[in-house]
Known about the structure:
- This protein is an alpha+beta fold.
- The chain has one domain.
- The strands form 3 sheets. Strands 1, 2, 4, 5, 8, 9 and 11 form a 7-stranded antiparallel beta sheet that branches. A 4-stranded antiparallel beta sheet has the order 7-6-12-13, covered by helices on one side. Strands 3-10 form a two-stranded antiparallel sheet.
- α2 runs antiparallel to α3.
- The longest helix is centred in the first third of the chain and has 22 residues, at 55-76.
- It has helices at 2-21, 29-48, 55-76, and strands spanning 81-88, 93-100, 104-105, 111-112, 129-130, 136-143, 146-148, 150-155, 161-164, 169-170, 182-183, 188-194, 199-204.
- 29% of the residues lie in helices and 28% in strands.
- Residues 1-23 have low confidence and may be disordered.
Amino acid sequence: MANNISIKSYSEKTIFNSKCLLNDHGFTLVEIISVLIIIAIVSGFMISRMGSDKSELYSIESLFKGHIRYAQSKSMQSDSSVWGIRINKALDEYWLFNSDIGQTSKWDTNRRLPPGGTASPTNLNPDRIKTSLMKVDIKALKVGTSQKSLLTIVYDEMGVPFWTEGGTMVFLDPLSDTSGLNRLSADIVIRLMDKSRNNKYIKIYQETGFIQ
Length: 212
């Protein structure tokens, strides 16, 4: 009797563990993006401590990509709010924001300091990242062939990217119905440059929002 109970308990435990470890459906897109975000943030810290001439540039590139993916991931996890990233080329700054569907957004409200980021050390900007503090400038923002000085990128619940240059906006559901918001139909390219004039490029692909 004791042996039978022991065998039964072991079998049930084995089956339970097997079900936990095996997933017939694979990983979801949100799970994959979450892993990429963690890798990007950890990589940014590691690279910044390497001490090479390009370490700041590589660090900012890695963090920047991770924060864009973070905004995409957060939007995909909610059907009642929108997450995005606001980039100011002239000030070498960017920040995350979120806004509920139907809420008026002016980009300077609901700001969120990106995870793993260090805030600008001024009283006016405690909730954004200033890349020039790490000796890296945001030298160019392009949507297709069009140059931008200000750019806001937001994502719908499917991770599809939209963009606008600014202004007050009320997000609607679906996001494509929002006045003044454009579905991304050309790739976005962000050019970063350090003080030695080394360049790195971040590319956001149209439709999918894939970041390279």
